[in-house]
Design a protein that fits this description.
Bound molecules: adenosine-5'-diphosphate
CATH superfamily of the largest domain: P-loop containing nucleotide triphosphate hydrolases
Distance between the termini: 55 Å
Number of strands: 12
Strand order of the largest sheet: 3-4-2-5-6-1-7
Shape: globular
Order of helices and strands: EHEEEHEHEHEEEEEE
Amino acid sequence: LKSPYHGGHLEVIVGPMFSGKSEELIRRVTRAVIARQRVAVFKPAIDDRYHAAHVASHAGRTIEAVAVRDAAVIRAHLAGEGPLLSSPEVELPEVVGIDEAQFFGPDLGPLVLDLAEAGVRVILAGLDLDFRAEPFGCIPDLLARAESVEKLTAICTVCGAPATRSQRLIGGQPARFDDPVVLVGAQEAYEARCRVHHEVRR
Ligand code: ADP
């Protein structure tokens, strides 16, 4: 039985933090596993190590994943060059899932388009907007190129409306527009917010 997506398919799941992107990725990947398709799931590694990991939703569900430093490592892994593979399997998986896709650099786009061209069903989950509510990295381009797009909302922590944005708080205060998009080691927190309650200090 061939996957219904055997012609290649790019699906993108976006929304702010807490909108259920990881949950939705886990749901789709779990269904592919039930359908006995070969699946590989990747996420960005926080450090430089390439290691076995999990994609976890805020509600606690997990699936196995491989944490990688960049898109080139995903390419190498799928080409059977991954150190985690005991017997290199050069055949591509039918489904490739990638979580936190916004943290991969500009190499992610060409990789996922190559995979889709090669007949793989690619499922990406990631933030469409950064903490300033600006389009995030390579995601806008992939939203345009995808066969299917799902834009999820969270719940605004201030008013309970559907939230489309991720509020970054540093020491309890809204972050500034020119703070770096990726902050390492700061006292920071994120909350889901609607357009009205999302704040960026200028
Ligand atoms: P994402 O990957 O988009 O960050 P997750 O799939 O990890 O989202 O988590 C979604 C879950 O987070 C929800 O099902 C809910 O249990 C929980 N959650 C916590 N805070 C919120 C919020 N403000 N709005 C919606 N869900 C929330």
